[in-house]
UniProtKB/TrEMBL annotation:
Domain RNB: 463-796
Homology family: Belongs to the RNR ribonuclease family.
Gene giving rise to this polypeptide: LOC113515486
Broad class of where this protein is predominantly found: nucleus
Region Disordered, annotated ranges: 933-971
A GO molecular-function annotation: 3'-5'-RNA exonuclease activity
Pfam families: OB_Dis3, PIN_4, RNB, Rrp44_CSD1
Name of the protein in question: Exosome complex exonuclease RRP44
GO cellular component, one term: cytoplasmic exosome (RNase complex)
The keyword Signal appears for this protein: no
Biased composition (Basic and acidic residues): 933-952
Amino acid sequence: MWTTKTFLTKTKRGNILKIVREHYLRDDLLCGSAACNVCPHKDDEYVLDPKPESICALFDYPHYLVLDTNVVLHQIDVLEEDALTNVIILQTVLEEVKHQNTAIFQRILDVIGNKKRKFYSFVNEHHKDTYVERNPGEKQNDRNDRAIRKAASWYETHLSINNVKGQHPKIVLITDDEKNRKMAQEEGITCCSVKDYVENVNGFVGLVDKLSKNVIPESCSKDALYPAHLTPAEIHSGIRNGKLHQGTFHASRDNFLEGTATVNGYEKSILLQGHIGINRAVDGDLVAIEVFPEEEWRKPSDIVLEDKADDPGDLLEEESVLLNAVKPADNKNEITPTGKVVGIIRRKWRQYCGILLPSKFPGATRHLFTPAEKRIPRVRIETRQSDMLASQRILVALDSWPRNSRYPLGHFVRALGPIGDKDAENEVILLEHDVPHARFSEAVLACLPPNDWTIPPEEIKKRVDLRSICICSVDPPGCTDIDDALHARPTATAGVYEVGVHIADVTHFVRPATALDKEAASRSTTVYLVDKRIDMVPDLLSSNLCSLRGGEERLAFSCVWEIDENANILSTKFHKSVIKSAAAMTYEEAQIAIDDSSRNDEIARSLRTLNKLAKKLKKKRLDNGALLLASPEIRFQVDSETHEPLEVQAKKIMDTNSMVEEFMLLANVSVAQRLAEDFPQCALLRRHPSPPPANFEHFLLAARQQGFEIDVSTNKSFSKSLDEAVIPGRPYFNILLRIMATRCMMQAVYFSSGNHTQEEYYHYGLACPIYTHFTSPIRRYADVLVHRLLAASIGADVTHAELLDVRYAAALCDNLNYRHRQAQYAGRASVALNTHILFKYRVEIESAVVLAVKRNALQVLIPKYGLEGPLYLPSDMFTYNEENHMQICGDVTLKTFDELTVRLSLDSTNLQHRKLVFQLVKPFVPGFSYVPEEQKEKKPEQMEVDKEQENLKKRKDTAQSKGSKKKSKKK
């Protein structure tokens, strides 16, 4: 049996197009119930129990649940619990959920796929007895509600056939829509709200805590604290006529009453200040903004402001602290367009990690949740498990933010583990930065070759055989996911070398559109924490079959040049290859081989050639205007048994680091040029926009205070100015200057060539007109896509439709950029966590440098550890010179780049936000600076710290001793 579906759609020219499609209906679709005496089920096709046991006090008889769309969308956390079973999910509901929220759609599919849960997906839209036509003038939502009621009614009748009256399971429709419930009751369908059903469930403690809170309509103005948001129609009209602007809200990390949004038409971000200006926007939300007249524009505040530790209730505190700190600026360059949020276009809420604040009232069920991410506001939740959860890291989801609530409302999702537990804290880092880290699914693992896979002879015949060439890899210590290897050898022509970069051929194993490919695309990047790695592809590939390990045959994608002794590129060729790395070396081992004049073996000669050419390539890049920037990178020495940090030190940079970097850059540029030629509309490239002049204002002022005029008009003049800014006797000053210059930069991003002009391809930091990522396909999905394009370009593999789809490429680039950014943040958070662990029983006095001067604090950096944080200054002692960004107390003046001595310790009083505390030691300010302990009588708590420090030193010495023994055994 079939019927027709008619759709009316508008073309780009405004014409109305009528589309008629055939819609087939069947009478042989199974109901999935073991209580059914009609459908011809096979034994493995029964999903629903014949007599399900009721766990709800409202219904003392066996029943199945039928859910409407909003229940799935808003109560997915309840549905994922084991409590509810024997549930019917209709096709109507699944299609609506898929259309509205793909993440929740995948979560409900996972529940349906779990056989223990007994969730049955019924194809009601194709069953002749449950399909309903949309009536003339009927809204789609009303039609879908009617389809859900029709299916519920059909199940009730269907299960009663050939069953003794009252012996078959009943149907209970779960919906929070009052209108839908009323109509269902009129049609004889038993129905119930989610809240009523869950609150009467027996035997599942904590299930009620997972209920999503109902949204209070914007029109409700009772006790309103915030202005009402505009309706979608008002927002759309305002944006269309130019009165409103659309942008993504970014909350400040330093000031909870401040945020920004980037909108089209304004060079600077729009500044949003105060509770009313932000108007319930949460970091990441897409918002509608009204920009104030130019005379009301301000400059961002210089104050560091955190939300108070106690619960202020549903009141907004006076914002005078913030507004007094934000006076109109004399310098027009400092003024920023200012506005306010007038509506929410799309929420980007997720689940957030954090802790419960203790309630002032014993037995209270309403509690305040403090997120780990400082940019997220606190959340009100209800729970009856507060005593148990008080010592736990927990996960909470946001539900709504009514106008009459100071904070958004949410619900408890699950506990992650005890506060301070290493595994729980790592889980927080991964969840907070939205890092996919679940185990690889069976579908993904099914795409892998067997563990004992070897290269088939027929595959070798298709490739260039380079196994006889002396190729080696150079990587950090402990690296197991080796992406790249190099070789250099003289050619028959005097003064000309053949140089090759060989990259793991991941695309041989990760084929397009497979479960493995989709998972790698979703993850987009490998994430490196201090003590663990979250792989983009399974370990069999990342650490074994794709890793270019020494002495093992591997598939590679090679970029080979002929280069003269002045580092000029004479020719370039690309090919799939088979290699056998002669050695997998660390940077230090490679450096020793280069420096050891007694070594003249093939590996040492190759490395020396590479190093010589790399220096010339680097000089050319720098002469061309490439920037040499810096970041305070550190490396932890970790206990092999407890995985706790024992020591931290700045990373050592050697010539071999630069050697590898130069050839990776060269390979990436060469590949980018080839892709742009062959795929001008869909090449995946990477660009680095030039920073706007406003980004340099504080940096230039700080450099000027040290006697240097930095020319930032072009990247070439900028690079030259940085090279010349040297202070004799302060070797770290130039590095510090480059660290600060890095923070003025824009973010480099992936893009599809068809979406930008050729001028926009430019990479500012590298000073090159075109660039991409080719050299790390084990840990970056962008490189996988580049490999596929390059393989199609040279005829080594076939192309596929998605590679050439410009829209698909743009969406993919958005995800690549997001995941890359989140991976960076997760890595930094892991460093911060391990730093806190390291300083738990440790206090040190170290040299520091001022990075920035704020109204109430100095941002300082400890060069020895690469640690950074605020040193708060009391306003009654220090005077802030706003024009010159200085803090003055008597004859002590503190400005950017000044050297200090600080005391470093850990403050654990706030369990959620443990933080390093920086206390001024020198210059000495009476009544404020810390007096070293040796000048005082030691207190008992200091003796405990000393004891712990001594224990740490012993553990570190033991670990070093074990390490040296292992090295001697290897030798």
